[in-house]
Amino acid sequence: MPLTSQSRKQTWRTLPRLLRLLILTQFAFNIGFFAVLPFLAVHLGTSIGMAGWLVGFVLGLRTFSQQGLFVVGGALTDRYGVRPIVLTGCVIRIAGFVWLGFAQETMTVIGAVLLVGFAAALFSPAVESEVARQAVCWEQETGGSRTHVLALLTVAGQAGAFTGPLLGALLLTVDFRVVCLAGAGVFVIVLCGHAWLLPQHIPGRPKTRGRGGIGPLRRNRRFLAVCTAYGAYLLAYNQLYLALPDEVQRVAGSQTSLAWLFALSSLLVVCAQLPVTRWVTDRLDLRRSMAAGLLLIAAGFAVVAATQHAALGLAPAAAFVLLLTVGQMLVAPAARAWIPDLAETGRLGLYTGAMSSLSGLIVLAGSAATGTLLDLNVPPAVPWLALAAVTALPIILLPSTRPPQHQR
Fold first, then answer.
1. For the purposes of burial, counting CB atoms within 10 Å of the CB of 406, is it exposed (0-12), middle (13-18) or buried (19 or more)?
2. pLDDT value at position 208?
3. DSSP-assigned letter for residue 400
């Protein structure tokens, strides 16, 4: 029986122990992270009193300090290996969450947010690049699809993203500081567990010595085009924390429904990611999968724009979350599966990090612009229409994939 028709449990059992540990790592990371992040915008605007454009800038800065510096974490992973980079990132994330819980001034908030983001810039490319490398090895050994393994990574991440906001919402009834300290506590557990379980040396993983790799990367137009499309997706996803809270507040008068919309998104990925990936892998190559996903996300923005004057309550926001999530299920695994085919030998960490870094630049500029649009006296549909256009346009830049024998 081909692996594309196996159940989730059967696929999981065929994976090597290290690959399963790394996938579970993504789950744990997201519990701690999403216990805090969904409530940050409200905390900055209400408790600290930041203007809308500044909230958007700080959220974009957080994404940039994370995604934008992935290239650093990726290059360090190529040189020093997975274990030291993951453990260092966990220590920094703990410090950042504790600092954020006590920060009350704009500059101290920015410092804490930068620390929180930089931590992920270390451990995330280390985990993601090694999962991609292990997925390619598993694909070669079993004849299965690397995309299925990377879909499992997405499922684990979204399971954590589902659990995190519920934990954060529960603790928010006490205080935002308690939420931050709980997030730090999760990463303390992750740090201790990985200090014990993560191997010092991973067989078959090359270590890159010396500098280099940036020049060929900058000339790799196929890779840069994929980065642009992925950046548009990431900017769209970031609207769960910027434009969506604003829309929920406008429609419902409060943001109490926000945690449930986040939960809806995560639960959809947990339940549907693997069936969607199996269906898509049999029918679409990586380019078509990314293009279809971006079109669905753009349609989600368009739905909210078209219903601004309709008395539909939270239905348009829920439709946006649904379309964004289905689009994510197509875009994220395909982009991650594409990187090993585009990267130089021994530079997978660098290329994994660079994709997120370039995407972070797009999110930084796009989030500040979105925050400004939300603050301006423009028709409510304008920011959503602009986001729809920004999401759809990069489709025309996507390159063709490799010949069929190289596609997975």
1. exposed
2. 64
3. P
Neighbours of 381 (CB within 10 A): 17
Structural domains in the chain, sorted by start? 15-406 (1.20.1250.20)
**Residue in the block written with tokens 């203007």:** 51
* pLDDT tens digits along 184-233: 998 999 899 888 888 877 766 666 655 667 788 888 889 999 999 999 99
Residue recorded with tokens 């642009």: 228
> In the chain, what is the greatest distance between 2 CA atoms, to the nearest angstrom?
61
Tokens of 290: 């990314």
- Cα first-last separation, the chain: 17
Q: How big is the CA angle at 195 (ends 21 and 39), to the nearest 5 degrees?
A: 70
Q: What is the distance between the alpha carbons of residues 230 and 351, in angstroms, rounded to a whole number?
A: 13
Residues of the chain with pLDDT under 70: 1-11, 203-212, 402-408
The amino acid sitting at 223 is F
**Would you state the structure tokens that stand for residue 277, as one six-digit string?**
């990936």
DSSP 183-247: HHHHHHHHHHHHHHHS-SS-TT-----SS--HHHHHT-HHHHHHHHHHHHHHHHHHTTTTHHHHH
Report CA 138 to chain centroid distance, whole Å.
24
Tokens of 298: 């753009």
Backbone φ and ψ of 202, nearest 5°: -100, 120
Structure tokens at 386: 């602009």
Residue 5, pLDDT score: 42
Best CA proximity match to 371, nearest among 40, 51, 61, 112: 51
Q: Please tell me what DSSP assigns to residue 345.
A: T
**Secondary structure letter of residue 308 according to DSSP:** T
Q: pTM for the whole thing?
A: 0.74
Residue with tokens 């205080």: 175
Would you call 31 helix, strand, or coil by DSSP? helix
What's the chain's length in residues? Answer: 408
Q: Give the count of beta carbons closer than 10 Å to the beta carbon of residue 378.
A: 12
Amino acid identity of residue 273, one-letter, is Q
